Sequence to fold (365 residues):
Amino acid sequence: MSQFFELLSYRRILVITTTTVALIVLWSLYSDSGVTGTHTSNNSTKPPVEYNIQVKDSRGQKIEDELLYTGVTEASKIVKIQAEVDGKISKILARQGASVKAGDVIVNIESGNSGVLLQKAASALEQTKVKYDAALALYNRGLSSKLAMISAKTALKDAEAELKHRRLEYDKYFVKAPFDGIIDAIEVEEGDYVSTFNPSSSSIVSSILVLDPMKVVVEVPEHAVQKVRGIKTATVTLSNGDVIEGNIEFLSSIADEKVRSFMMEIKINNKGQVLSGQTVDVSISAGTVLAHCIPRSVLVLSNTGELAVKTIDADNTVVVKPTTIIKETNDCVFVTDLLEEEKVIVMGQGSVLHGEKILKYGSQQ
Fold:
């Protein structure tokens, strides 16, 4: 039994030793990797070394700083249409998805005696007008007093006001679209009762979308907010390739708590080809910027996880410089945050560390 435990102990020691050696090897490989970027200042004291690396003289050029985002289309307005009177739905004249013009009737509500009251008001106005005309004629001929004429005129105005009131009340039984749009939903059925006072009975009969103009919502990352602030226009590309110029209407001043981005709204003209909820590409021109065209293979990661390139300065010292990609082509990527002229390491950058002096290197055109 003691031999068993001795064997078990030996195996444990062997496993621990093997694991420790493996970790040391991995740490050594990681620390010497060219992808780790900037090293400590102790590297700067290393003597010049000779590596098989290639360096390219790169000159920056002024290019358009084009910010590219993905956006989602939304209706510029969504309005719930409510009944203004109580009653039973007698007829539905619009259907879901249909286009409506301002003033089009969506549903009818049983008007009760409202129509009768309107007719009485119209008849009363006609009678009052006849009486006023007679009173005015008598007054003009000197056969009636001014007081009688004024009284008849007042009665006429009262009758006109009553007719207007009854007409407005009667029109409420015909629920109409307040503006041009698309019927998103019909919330009632024929025979339903709508109430403006009873909490248990909704007064909403329909909802209407405004798709022209259309709203495009974009989330702008916090590092780009200052670039886009003050810019008025944007280019929107639809999934079918159509391009529409839009106006930037709004940029939030409060970042989203989760993703730390800022909401932007762009208005575009829409003649029926864009639906709400579509994904679109958005391009915003932020002026010009100095950028270098370099192969994607040149890019490395700094020790802080930033995208970077390795360059050689005037003292033949390796410098890791964080950079930002602003444009990509089939041949290269355009990066910023570099000097106008740089010696960029394009081959063997994984072999050298930040701060090392390079004894000899090759040049690549």
